[in-house]
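Tutorial, part two.
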Amino acid sequence: MDRASERFAIDRRGFLAGAAILLVWPRLARAADAPEGAKLPEATVRLLESSPLVYISPLRKDGTESTCHAEIWYAWIDGAVIVNTRPDGWRARAVARGQDRARIWVGDHGRWKSHLGPDNQGFRDAPSFEAVGRLEKDKALLEKQLAAYVKKYGADFDRWHDEMRDGIDKGTRILIRYEPVKAGPPAGSKG
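Running the prediction step on this input gives:
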């Protein structure tokens, strides 16, 4: 092979390698940005399987908590917290605009918002984790969630059942799947 052919072969390989990197790079970049799932402590998982409430607060882009908190019914399905909420509610709006990170505390500590006196911050001593939320309209997931609600909340859920089921089709309800990405500090720690 003469020098010109050899140089062309090297340039061609370099070009092909560069082209391959350009084609694959967006996928690699998205994969690097994608959060890794968190392995939650067994005690937290057991609590997620039994607790009637979680407390959710969206996280701002800088990682600080939003001022919006809420105690909310949920289902623990396939390693994710599933909530059924209004699409105009702050949880859904936060996820829809890309503020998809949230901190979730597990346990029943009563209503956090007080109409008289200071707010109840007892939930902050509960096991917690960071999660990434995404909006869902999957009918199979909805059916799993509704079945979990019937089992967990019984008669208290009766008045909400039809609204939550029919609301997905009507656009008045939406599911949010929160997948754990970072386990929080142990319950009761201030870290």
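The longest strand covers residues 174-183. In part three we will examine how such features are distributed along the chain.
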